[in-house]
Amino acid sequence: MAQRPATKKSAERAALPHFNFRRLSGGAVLLTNDSGTHASLSGAQFRQFRDGRVAAGSALYKELSAKGFVRDMMDMDGYAAACAKKNSFLGAGPGLHILVLTLRCNHKCVYCQSSAVGQASRGTDMSPALARKCVDFALKSTNPGITIEFQGGEPLLNWEALKASVLHARRRAKEQGREVRLALVSNFSLMTEEKARFLLANEVSICTSLDGPADLHDKNRVFAGGGSHAAAVKWLKYFSAAYKKQVPEFRTFKPSALLTVSRYSLGREKQIVDEYVRLGLEDVFLRPLAPIGFAKQLWDKVGYAPEEFLSFYRAGLDYILKLNARGVTIRERNAVMMLEKILNGTDPGYLDMRCPCGAVIGQLAYNYNGDIYACDEGRMVGWQGDDLFKAGNVARDPYSKVMLSQASRACASASSLDTQPQCSRCAYKPFCGVCPVYNYETQGSLSGEMPSNGRCALFMGLFDTLFSLLAKPASAKILKGWVSK
Amino acid sequence: MNEKKNSPLFFSGGIYSAEALRLAAAVFSARGGVRLTAAKGGTEAALSGGINPGEFANEALNQQCRIDLSARNSRLSGIIVTKALLSASGSSKKGGK
Predict the structure, then answer these.
(1) Distance of CA A68 to the CA centre of its chain
(2) Residue A124 and which of A60, A107, A361, B81 are 20 to 30 A apart at CA?
(3) For position B4, what pLDDT does the model report?
(4) ipTM value of the model?
(5) Euclidean distance between CA atoms A70 and A39, whole angstroms
(6) A107 Cβ partners below 8 Å, 6+ apart?
(7) In CATH, which superfamily holds the domain spanning A93-403?
(8) Which pLDDT band holds residue A313 (cuts at 50, 70, 90)?
(9) Can you give the residue ranges of every domain in chain B?
């Protein structure tokens, strides 16, 4: 048997600090460390680095030193500051508070993940009094700047509770001298001028679902009362016009839209992006469907394999980059959030991609009956009869008890990447996070098993795509522009 | 680990702890039955209810890796998780409710 040439087990080799690596397509090797810095090396450079043969004083040595990959040259204060910056959310507390004002919905979306019931159902509306209690509970958060997001079902079906909670939140925020952002996620089918004016006057930011051009949107988002797409477009234009106009009395936010990629969306990435551009939206979120809640039961019909989504994503992102090169303003949200971490070392507030994940410590979902769940996905699991992710109840449990509930502790522990085989040695660890709800729903445990985990395959593919694009000057220039301050 | 059709799987005690096997069995509890019995040099797992032996063995390995990794990294992980939980609860600051 041929012997491998001896490598230096000397001080140079021992001088390697902790790092993770991944071989990318094309032969490059990505190095990362826990502070979130990265370096892309050729195969030959990586072998030099691994064997401690990078010549001191060379350009590569200087780059690796500056980025914290040479132990003797480590700037520990800088390293610690970078870690603190990217993990600043650890000291913040829950910033996102999702109020599920009703489970009723007038749509029957093919992928419905949100445990909605029919429009005529009874007993699934939050009362205005309970909605105010939820607002008060949210204001107990240690996070100085919270967002209260109104969801459903379709939240406009419970206008009284929505109105009550908006007014209450504004009043309490003023009393406490606190910043409170309010956001509504609606399909717009029940929007009226009167409601729109109220929302604008109270500085509620608006988000709707938009799955692409009319035929695709209406195929995904079935609305017996007429075209769902038409309503979404009509009110997007209305709120966009209000944003452009601006008035001195209140701030008006630019409306946004959320895309859910179903099986029907695959292959239609250009038409979807074109629709967003046509409506003046500057961000499109090529958001994968997750087999959670009701979508799990419908997966054979509307779901897809991670590889199928990644093909869709790569084609969509490629098209978006081409549009950018032609001067069109449009960004992809997954990429933006990941690039914030990769290039700026900051946390973009993407709760699904944190370590620990955002369950309870970053967000809470308040069900129509006051039950509090670790996140909205956990609430969907609860609707199916499994309350593993229930953290308490607004009326019965004090804030600190909810924060330190079993659900909270279990999710935080299970999503710690330092105790996840594979994740702990993954090059994408500084930028990634696992989802205990996804793991539980697809693999039967909170911690999951990453080598066969669909979400892990999907995020690995997204990171591979981005790092490959960052290695190309033309695409790197556009991507860096998306997150430049 | 030796695998035979319709035979119990054998997990060597030198690699697999009883805790890892119990955790793996819990993961599969909704899909079927896992009966763990002590055997010479390790543990035997008898699977029923259509549990795929390969999947069970993967999960057992995953759980053992988690246990081994936790032994090394639990201090760091514990600091991060505790910081996040106490900050969120207000316990690390005055004024928490």
Answers:
(1) 28
(2) A361
(3) 44
(4) 0.89
(5) 12
(6) A116, A154, A187, A189, A221, A222, A223, A228
(7) Aldolase class I (3.20.20.70)
(8) very high
(9) 9-88
